[in-house]
Structure prediction request, 276 residues.
Amino acid sequence: MRKHISTIIAGIIFLTGLSLLLYPTISNFWNSKHQTQAVADYSKQIEKMDDQEKEQALAAAEKYNQTLITNGGRFTPTEEEDTLYDSLLDANGTGMMGYITIPEIRCKLPIYHGVEDSVLQVGIGHIEGSSLPVGGRGTHCVLSGHRGLPSAKLFTDLDKLEKGDIFLLHIYDKVLTYEIDQISIVEPEDYGLLEIEDGKDLCTLLTCTPYGINTQRLLVRGHRIENRSGDDSRVTSDAAEVSSLTVAVCVAIPLLIISFLVVDLSIRHSRKKQKK
Prediction:
């Protein structure tokens, strides 16, 4: 009886260990699947909008950006400013402004209003007080994302980017291309490099660093350049490259094998006991 119980316990421990080992891969897959679906739903919603609706939405965002230039307290908005901010660039009512693609690290992620934890667990957050991601002179958009989450990749590979690499913002039916010209590491409370610069069209990607320690902030800044054909053509999500059935089979097979072994050992033990 003791041997029988020991076999079952060993099987349970093994299954638990395997589950913990597979969790990051499976979780990242499902999050990537969610991100892919969010981008697809957003794109369909934009296609349904007429040109006038799109123009009005972009014009409202540009007008909002102009008010930020002289707003010294833009990073500490009032309740009224919060309400206005949430209403802008919200095509499908989910708070999704658009999405970002980073060809060099094969990254495609939805961009949402704000940087609440619920947002940063599944996508990229736009820092309120920075310019909305519609471009234009005298704008500086700041987008924040997590690194090293066991459940999602997000901005984990942001430190692999170099000066001269590009990233693209897809906002409504507008595509904005930015070329990286500055990579910096700053303290969490240092907002100096996030300021709006006169006449410049900038966008900064922000994440925590060093990896796993997160005591500082990595800032990857780009300036707007002309769009180039095919720049993000090689960007596909991990989930789009692997079917759900394939993932299910890869998980199910080792679990079934282990379960079979545990049952087989239990049956053999029972037979030996009966013979005795």
